Each structure stands twice: as structure tokens, then as C-alpha cells.
């Protein structure tokens, strides 16, 4: 979840924020399922005359197989027009009304999203339904989209911070589906055809593999009729796709991937190992603990690597969660000659979780920070619609949201110690270094078994 605010509250403001946070509950919403299998969430919010709609499909890069980038291209390609209306017509309809239309495919889900004024529902919701169910994937428009994406992939290799995560997932998940780069590779994306995209859509964009989320200012009875009319005839042919085992982290020995960028003057690095799934019961308290380590500006990692030593402009840590698994990583970058010093200091700071632990004062500060950040994440209809989509895709119950504050408040130093031992990887750390191999290769073996890669090579595997 993205943090929208990072302002520390003090005094009366902090007390007020804490009081409001303590009362936070996910607003009521209705969950139904149409006869064709489509899950429908509807949440009324009449504070502003806006409606947010999401179609979330349980399909993403994990379903690409050997065609890396296919889900992502399909997710964006959905917006290129429908069987009834071309792209120009749909774009004009949304733009003229100041509405937003977006789409895309990530690791495990594909989403089509629209935000518009209540008064424009009858004009725009039918177009949204057309795109979800009957996209045209116009050949000319698809070719242009693919070309833009290929150029973007080529450019991304010039910016290590954009691609280091792809190398890290490839390292940790090996040949499993979770290692697939969502945007694909230059070669894989260039090879995709219109028929590939149409086949992916037909296989996975189906009502029994999707959810429709509507949040905002609407009359429930009227919206139910609209949804049934627009989506009730959506057909699902054959058996629904089943979720496979998408992989688990491989970390049976310390390893280092050195990705050579011969003209680099910095080293970008990730250090870590296995994490947790999005619906793990310890998800909430781990957000607090990670806040101490590397989840805010005053975290241990940022203090040591940026403020105290000046080795970098920033350092952080995070749990990247998926539906079945997840990863943990410390991330930063530093000037090439300072690579070893930065890595050693990051590892030393990380070890404080075990060598010193988290005292009550530090824990209380992190708890207050996390509680202050929480409600603003779910203020708008757009944010709530996105949350419901993520809950659907990752099998997260509403209790995780409703009990967030209680779970934060109940975290003690003793429980924190147990969670550190359970979830933060300490042995067999995995490390990706992107930089000038002629320099950083000299110290890489200090941290584990070394594998050398070239950033200019296609993809993210050795």
C-alpha cells in the first residue's frame, strides 16, 4: 500500500488523529455473485457525487508462461477500443466529461478502472463494460502500444533502480511464475501478436474469474439493475482457470547476483529473502516493525546510511506481498567506491533487530506513526475501490482492515521479538548488486556465492 502522507503529528493533532484512527472501520459494502459467476462489490458513499468502478481479474504475469509481458500488454490493450466503439470514441467520451479510464496487468491481477461523476454513469458505465468484455485489440493501436512498451523496456535498463526489483524476484523465485517480469522483456514483448492477446483475454477475462467493484454516489437498486444488464450476459466458456503454485523463495545459501552496468557510477542494491503473503495474520504488526527498520524517514536504515554516514540519499526496507508468498528487502544505492561500506553498514543496522531489539519507546513511536498513516489511505472512493479489488485478488478478509488499529495497539516488545525471529530473514541473505562489475565484483564473494549478469542482456535471468 502506498503511503499518501508522511507528516508526523504532535500534540493535540496527534491525539485527534489517534482518536479518529481508533474508530476506523471499513465502510459497509454489499457482496453478491451474479448467476454467471461474477463477484460484485458495491459500497455507497454519498459525500461527493463521484463513482469509482474497478473490474479485477485474477490473472497477471504469473499466467504469462513463456510469453513474458502478455498479461501486461493485454491489460493495457483492453483500453484500445471495443467491438462497438473505437479508441477515439471512448477516449473522447471519458475526456470530455473529465473522467478517468485506466488499465493494466501486474503480477497476479489485471485491472480496468474508471472514475467519473455520478451524472455520467449512464454514458460511461456501458463503455466500461464493453472494454472489459469485448475489447477489439485493434491491430494498429496494439502495434503502437507494443512499440511504446518495448522502447520503455530498453530505457529502463539505463536506470538500475527501475529494474533491480525484477532481478531480485528472478533470483529469489528462480524459474517459478512469481519470477516473471510483469512488463516482459524486449524479446518476449516484441514477439507478442494480436492473437496472443486475444487468447489471453478469452481465457482469463471471464465472469467467474473476476470481480466488479463499484464505490461512490449511487442508488443501490438502480446500480444493481445496471450491473445485471451490462454484465449479466458475460459468458464463461469451459472450466474456470485454477490458481497453481506460483513458487516460493529459494534461499538455502547466501547468494549474490552482480549485474554489470559498465558505465555505472553508483551501486544499486537489494538485500533480503523470503517474506509473507498478503493475507498473513502477521501482516499488520510487521508493518509496524518494518517502520522501525526502514519504513519511514527516521528509520534505523535511513538514519545510518543517509543521515549519520552520508553514504546514500535514502535507504528503506519493505515486505512485498503476493497472494501465496512474498519477499523482504533492504534497498538503497551508493557511490561506487563506497559500495562495501554501505553494504556492511546496512547489514550491521539490520542486525540490530536481533542484537538490540526494539524497545518500548521506539515501538510506541512506530505504532503512532502507522496509525496516523492508516485512515488517509482509504478516504476516497477510488482508494476504497482499489482496496476492495486487492482484497478480492489476494483473499484478504475485511477483518484485517477492521482490526488494524487493535492489532497495532496490541503489539508489545515481547511480541515484536517473536515476530522478528519468525519473519525477518537472518541467515542465507540474498543480494542483488547493479553497478560496475569490474569494481564491485571484487567484494561480492564476501557476501555469498556470486553469479554474474550483464544488464544489456535480454531479460533478468542469468
Describe the overall structure.
- There is one protein chain.
- This protein has 462 residues and is α+β, with helices and mostly antiparallel strands.
- The protein folds into two domains: 30-232, Metalloenzyme, LuxS/M16 peptidase-like (Cytochrome Bc1 Complex, Chain A, domain 1), CATH 3.30.830.10; 255-454, 2-Layer Sandwich (Cytochrome Bc1 Complex, Chain A, domain 1), CATH 3.30.830.
- It is 43% helix and 18% strand.
- It is built from 18 helices and twelve strands.
- The chain has a six-stranded mixed sheet with strand order 1-2-6-3-5-4, with helices on both faces. A six-stranded mixed sheet has the order 9-10-8-11-7-12, sandwiched between helices.
- Helix 2 packs across helix 8 and helix 11 (300-308) packs antiparallel against helix 12 (339-355).
- Mean pLDDT is 93; it is low at 1-20.
- It comes from Pseudoduganella guangdongensis.
Short description:
The chain has 462 residues and is α+β, with helices and mostly antiparallel strands.
Which stretches are poorly predicted, pLDDT < 50 over at least 5 residues? 1-20
| Text of the CATH class of the largest domain | Alpha Beta
What percent of residues are in strands?
15-25%
Shape, principal axes of CA atoms: globular
CATH superfamily of the largest domain: Metalloenzyme, LuxS/M16 peptidase-like
Count of the domains: 2
Q: Give the H and E element order.
A: HEEEHHEEHHHHHEHEEHHEEHHHHHHEHE
User: What strand order characterises the main sheet?
Assistant: 1-2-6-3-5-4
Q: Which fold name corresponds to the CATH topology of the largest domain? A: Cytochrome Bc1 Complex, Chain A, domain 1
* CATH architectural grouping of the largest domain: 2-Layer Sandwich
Oligomer designation: single chain
Helix segment tally: 18
Mean pLDDT score? 93
Quickly give the structural class: alpha+beta
Keywords: Signal
GO molecular function: metal ion binding
Signal peptide: 1-21
Domain Peptidase M16 C-terminal: 193-368
